[in-house]
Amino acid sequence: MIDTVLLAAILIAFAVAAALTIVRIVVGPSILDRAVASDVLLTEVLCVLGAEAAINQHVRTIPIMLIIAAVGVFGSIAVARFVARRDQQGDR
Amino acid sequence: MEEILDTASLVLVLLGALLCITAAIGLLRFRDVPQRLHAATKPQVLGLLLIAIAVALSLRSWTVVFSLVPVVLIQMATAPLSAHMIGRQAYRNGDVQGLVLDELAEEPGHPEIGP
Fold first, then answer.
1. Contacts of A17 in chain B (CB under 8 A)
2. Confidence (pTM)
3. Contact call for B14 and A13, based on CB within 8 A
4. Which of A38, A91, B48, B60 has an alpha carbon 20 to 30 Å from A69's alpha carbon atom?
């Protein structure tokens, strides 16, 4: 009984978090806001994969978590460098 | 004992999900990029740590623990990196207002605070 309640709460929490983050990605005034929000969305995907492995008790998603944790940083860095190059050209 | 461990792992997953909600609300409510970064880096480290502990409690095998340790370590190493890059770029773009002390300015000191 308590497990069912906890599962429902977990599902609702992840859904609301992802929806609010997507709202910030769509609304975000600057590209850096969108980069931060997409980083958070990637972290939520990571957390959802781990939660699914914990709930269903299998290990198939753990290599995917490792790859996302290793590669996910490059998106934000690429966006930050791209913004830098565009601003320097704008100054000259 | 098994049921207690399973329920504990569900509670930890719920805590991680609540941290994700906290980050999302912070992204929506805060004003500029550094404040949003402050909210965004909470689930990247603590939420993922809670969920990794939950997976370890749920599966109860050392192989899983030793494959989750690099996930958490890599995330702890790369989350400050991307946050630093984005925060520095936000400062250079002039998105940061209302600083009490601006140590990156040409002459460090207190900026003029208007009436």
1. 17, 20-21, 23-24
2. 0.85
3. yes
4. B60
For A52-68, give one letter per residue: b (16+ CB within 10 A) or e.
Answer: ebbbeeeeebbeebbeb
- Whether residue B28 contacts residue A26, with contact meaning beta carbons closer than 8 Å, is answered with no
> In degrees rounded to 5, what are phi and psi of residue B45?
-110, -60
Residue of chain B nearest A54, judged by CA positions? B55
Q: How do the pLDDT tens digits run along chain A, 92 residues long?
A: 888 999 999 999 999 999 999 999 998 788 888 999 999 999 999 999 999 999 998 889 999 999 998 898 888 888 888 875 555 554 43
